[in-house]
From TrEMBL, chains A, B, C:
Domain UDP-3-O-[3-hydroxymyristoyl] glucosamine N-acyltransferase non-repeat region: 24-92
Keywords associated with the record: Acyltransferase, Lipid A biosynthesis, Lipid biosynthesis, Lipid metabolism, Repeat, Transferase
Family recorded in the similarity comment: Belongs to the transferase hexapeptide repeat family. LpxD subfamily.
Gene Ontology process terms (BP): lipid A biosynthetic process
Function: Catalyzes the N-acylation of UDP-3-O-acylglucosamine using 3-hydroxyacyl-ACP as the acyl donor. Is involved in the biosynthesis of lipid A, a phosphorylated glycolipid that anchors the lipopolysaccharide to the outer membrane of the cell.
Name assigned to this protein: UDP-3-O-acylglucosamine N-acyltransferase
Subunit details: Homotrimer.
Pfam family, one: Hexapep_2
The organism's place on the tree of life at top rank: Bacteria
EC number, as in UniProt: 2.3.1.191
């Protein structure tokens, strides 16, 4: 944690908001409404948090004008249009920064590698032939940057990351612990009952401002490259297979898997544990809810879903029995037959009435 | 493997059981019924394993009184109430222990870190500022313990583990290889078509006796902490997002993913590859079968399930066609309409009969 | 990338094909049809790629006799029966090889370990007591080979791999970055509301030519061993639990999970993110499509599937409502009742007609 504290006026200025209350009020940290103490600042993310805000011990609240008027018992505020965004900005103020610069004596760097003077290379990092590490980039302990890999400026590569396959990373990229980038794609030619390995000759290109979580696997391409465009954000334990292409600003939640050569558009959101089959295309602005299974192209923007949700176990068992019968039940005919028989019945009834 | 061998009497004493047969019989290891040799001890976990036990070459059998009476051809036994538990106890006797203590010369330890004298710090381990490592704790090769992390006593941290985000770990915790704890949560504020990173200021708290498998990701909280209570056990490749709270003694099988701020109760069991959506609550004593998908709160204890199970492929394809029609078929009306028409038919029939 | 270039005649010889055109044409690399330049060689994998081949700038094409006759505008060819296989062979020619041999000075090797003279042991590798590393095997930076582990010849172990649990690996095995092999299985005996750890005493056996991707977890057995037979290929982020047995040449795509003691036959293909429940058997030659969920034995070869595929979100919501009603709808009776009522109706109608 950054030990400095800030005055209300200072923080309001940083988020381009207006302050109300004691301009010199000292704020030592951000906190949740629930656990905040008097020296903390909180954000109120809509009307549904008003009751929690009223009960909070926080000293200062980031709110909209409307929310402020409803918090009549509170004294200190920062008023902004978008409290969540202001909160996002302030997290950077209170974040503990890695201030070390230079190369730890235990790092092994190939003489041909070019490391910016103000980069930080942690303990036991290994950097190979012809690598480039840009200005202000931090490579944490034990990371392995294989021959020919280039990392831009202002990047953060956490501990135990492997970057290989001559991957090229641009600027302001963050890669979290134990992730593997540029590893060999899963390519095998079946022949006479055996799998013949296809050595992977493509690489990985990662655009500006990309974020990759921990324990992810991003494979190098078979011939062309695997590509993550600018602004892509990826959570933990995600698989990106060889030759996948992810468009700008697409967000991929934890545990997703994208199979080989799939092409995902811009501004998509993939819910957790979703799977995308290989060699297909998803257009821009597609949202998948969690655990979706994509087996065909998606050519229209929109929200898509899979999965039957959760059932109480005995209800589920009965449902599965029915589901197994479903293939033999001509669903669309049933209603038609019912309508037809209803008509027959009514005709019979009127015939009978006429004969009375 | 521990090379010592044990006498039947010794082992019976260790599991608080009664021995039958040669009290000095030498036992060199535990084994499965199938592969056991004469110097091995096996356990018989219920009547369904009696045939396998009869055919086994093991020298000694851990059994209940009832099972013993049915194994008339065998000579040496340890009789207990719960053979599986006795087996669990004995595995610890035959396990190869890590006996090294002290700090390997290749480990890099910040001068401010406090390491217990009888801890073991393996090769190339990096331990940061103000860390604490408790008595009898083992940190295997290459692990990275970042600034401010505390690990209690009698813990085991396997190779290539990353612990960061100022995580606090209590006692008797086991963390397996290549797991990342305390890494940054996946928090971004969308604004003007881009994702704005929310620096994560919370931490991770891990209770006593917690077990975390290999290749897991346990993220630090955004403001408050991610919390695993005492006795939680977690298998491999599991994702625990920021601000998740897992109650005591809950077991999470491999490949599960728990999204941000979800709260899971005590004594739950999550089957493999289950997913829990963010910001919801699961009460105590809930069991999810494998590959469950939880999108709503679960407020009643019980067993829950998802997923349609496996179909032969052509049956599956037909089922999916029907499933896509299902939305347009008024299922609950069909039976009602059938009943109604049946009544009409019967009324017509009786009218006709009356007119004979 | 290997900097050498090859003559057309040379490459044709290497794939046992026939060349047409300029036998001395210099080829510097393999490429995709789309991005190839004149000095590149491409393969044409069937008629559907003919248009792309015609538009390609590649200098040489690997084709079948039939395809060659249709590419009338092109000059240089290698003709083979199986272009995809020829391509697979040539990737090995153009692959950048790791040429270093010997032991880096920063590696920590126990004096009792036996390392072949022509093996390569990378920076900061740790190799324990009684380990064996075979001829021409490469162990990349930071890998941890724990006591008693044996690795055969011609293997490749990438960075940050953990091999423990006395695992025994045969020859020509490739293990990608950040994978953990031989880690402790998830075995706990429940007793009085707590989980009692079962120390895992089995090991892992990995056959010849096995390939394991990045970020995989392959646990050691509880008593007997976890076994991967010869020729098994495994993609990234796959979980193989304790005592699993995988038969020869079975392929497992990314994100699959195989639970404890499951037994999978030979020549199976498991689509991505499939799950197999513990203690069951899958026979030889079974294919699972992506995201399959196997909860019962599969005793017949064939293709099997799970999952409802993707729905537009509002269609999905309606479908789920119906699915929740399904348990109470006697599907198989509906058609029978319809048929029965139809017969009644017709009988009534004919009765009425007779009475006219």
């Amino acid at each position: 944690m950054n030990r400095r504290s800030y005055r209300l006026e200072e923080l309001a200025h940083l988020v381009q908001g207006e302050y109300f209350g004691e301009k010199d009020f000292q704020i030592s940290n951000l906190a949740s409404l629930e656990l905040a103490q008097n020296q903390h600042i909180c954000f109120v993310n809509g009307e549904k948090y008003l009751a929690q805000a009223e009960a909070s011990d926080a000293g200062v609240y980031i709110v909209t004008e409307t929310l402020k008027q409803q918090l009549t018992q509170k004294k200190n505020f920062i008023v902004v249009d978008n409290p969540y965004l202001a909160f996002a900005v302030l997290t950077h103020i209170f974040e503990a920064k890695i201030l070390q610069r230079g190369i730890e004596s235990t790092a092994k760097i190939h003489p041909s590698a070019i490391i910016a003077d103000d980069a930080y290379i942690g303990h036991y990092v290994v950097i190979g032939e012809n690598c480039v590490i840009g200005a202000n980039t931090i490579i944490q302990s034990h990371s392995f940057i294989d021959d020919g890999v280039e990392v831009g400026k202002d990047c953060f590569v956490d501990a135990h990351v492997t970057i290989t396959g001559q991957a090229k990373l641009k600027d302001r990229i963050r890669i979290h612990a134990n992730t593997a980038i540029g590893t060999e794609g899963f390519g095998f030619a079946p022949y006479q009952g055996k799998w013949h390995r296809i050595a992977q000759l493509g690489s990985v290109q990662i655009g500006n401002d990309v974020r990759i979580g921990s324990n992810c696997s991003i494979d190098r391409g078979a011939l062309d490259d695997t590509i993550l465009e600018d602004g892509v954000i990826i959570d933990n334990l995600v698989q990106i297979a060889h030759n996948v292409h992810i468009g700008e600003n697409t967000a991929i939640a934890a545990k997703c898997g994208i199979a080989g050569s799939a092409r995902i558009g811009k501004n998509c959101i993939l819910g957790g544990a979703s799977g995308v089959v290989g060699h297909l295309e998803i257009t821009d602005n597609v949202t998948l809810t969690a655990m979706s299974m994509v087996t065909k192209n998606i050519s229209e923007a929109g929200t898509y879903s899979s999965g039957m949700g959760l059932f109480e176990n005995s209800h589920w068992k009965k449902t599965i029995v029915r589901l197994r019968q479903l293939a033999d039940v001509p669903l669309t005919q049933i209603t038609k037959r019912l309508d037809y028989m209803q008509a027959q019945l009514e005709s019979l009834e009127s015939t009978l009435k006429l004969r009375k």
